[in-house]
Design a protein that fits this description.
seven-stranded mixed sheet; about 375 residues; Phosphatase 2c, domain 1; manganese
Length: about 375
């Protein structure tokens, strides 16, 4: 079991009706902008983080709340340009035909720039932590580290001011997908290993929702022998960038590219002797059971279709639900994705959250 689920994610296929800009974010727990409307996206993202932080502290119940939240988000423009804003140690990684592009950098107290700001603000770094306590140096919340009245918000010991990285689409190295995840994933795997994991599983025939669950299962910490409490919250968002392909063409392209470079992959998992079909069935059964006990939302627009899966589960409750079917309307999403694939760039998004809490909320499917 786990004490609490602290992660969340957001998927917006269209920020508003006037644009074809998509927005995805992962928030790891421990309004419309004039700059956005004028195309100043980098400044709009920075402004958004700072305004969100300021509004949080204005709520009465948060004044003495010691909790905080790392946050990473990406905004994808119609021309394929990606803006990534990050505060903390959640991370975004882009796959470009198997290459790896870091869209964010972790904000740790030991980083030179972070260390300098912490000390200038009256704090200190001990045991690699802010004031010997906090393991990251930028975050939403964590207001006990933001109380110096002489400093602006972005100069506090801990700040919500994000780092923004812009990636321009390169036709010679087209974008394939983006992975957004909290530190529970990156503590287990490098950026390159995660990209390899996703591409390999696509080559094995798995879909993104199954890959999300498989990735989290691979990184989920075992329970503490003394307390019986696990140590991880995990959130993962996978965003497939279609570039005018249908969803199936997108899967087939990555699969063919991977096999051409590496050969046909062997099944992964604890039992290396599993046949390919058995492995795929095993992972998809787990994905189906977790999805059936969590919350699924299917959203369809004129240009993109995405399925977001929120999950709170433990292995025991998941095994009890192994034979539960996914909501039937998810088949509609697959059809809609294929129909919508002629507009570019399209995004296919799958996301999941996991902890080891045995809660089992009612399933919900929504076709917009």
């Amino acid at each position: 079991m786990k004490i609490a689920m602290e992660d969340a994610h957001t998927t917006l296929l269209k920020i508003d009706e006037k644009t074809n800009i998509a927005f995805y974010a992962v928030f790891d727990g421990h309004g419309e902008s004039e700059k956005f409307k004028s195309g100043e996206y980098e400044e709009a993202l920075k402004e958004g983080f700072m305004k969100a932080d300021a509004e949080i502290i204005q709520t009465t119940e948060r004044v003495f709340d010691p909790s905080g939240c790392a946050a990473v988000c990406v905004m994808i423009l119609p021309d394929g340009t990606v803006y990534c804003a990050n505060a903390g140690d959640s991370r975004a990684v882009l796959s470009t035909a198997g290459g790896v592009v870091d869209l964010s950098h972790d904000h740790k107290p030991t980083n030179a720039e972070e260390y300098q700001r912490i000390n200038a603000g009256g704090g200190f770094v001990e045991y690699g932590r802010v004031n010997g306590n906090l393991a990251l140096s930028r975050a939403l919340g964590d207001f006990e580290f933001k109380g110096n009245p002489k400093l602006e918000a972005k100069d506090q010991v801990v700040t919500a001011y994000p780092e923004v990285i812009v990636h321009n689409e390169d036709s010679s190295k087209p974008s394939e997908f983006i992975v957004l995840a909290c530190d529970g994933i990156w503590d287990c795997m490098t950026n390159g290993q995660v990209v390899e994991f996703v591409r390999r599983h696509i080559a094995l025939g798995l879909k993104l929702e199954s890959i999300c669950e498989s990735l989290m299962m691979s990184c989920l910490a075992t329970e503490n022998e003394l307390t019986g409490i696990g140590c991880d919250n995990m959130s993962v968002v996978l965003i497939g960038i279609l570039h005018g392909k249908t969803v199936e063409q997108w899967y087939d392209h990555i699969k063919a590219d991977y096999i051409a470079a590496h050969g046909v992959p062997e099944p992964l998992g604890s039992d290396q002797r599993l046949e390919h079909a058995e492995y795929v069935e095993q992972i998809e059964e787990v994905s189906s059971s977790i999805s059936a006990s969590g919350e699924a939302t299917i959203s369809t627009t004129s240009t993109t279709t995405a399925m977001s899966v929120d999950t709170e589960s433990d292995p025991e409750s998941a095994s009890d639900a192994k034979k539960a079917d996914l909501p039937a309307t998810q088949n509609i999403a697959a059809d809609s994705e294929a129909e919508a694939a002629n507009s570019a760039p399209q995004k296919l998004s799958q996301s999941g959250e996991s902890d080891s809490n045995s809660s089992n909320p009612d399933s919900k499917t929504e076709n917009q």
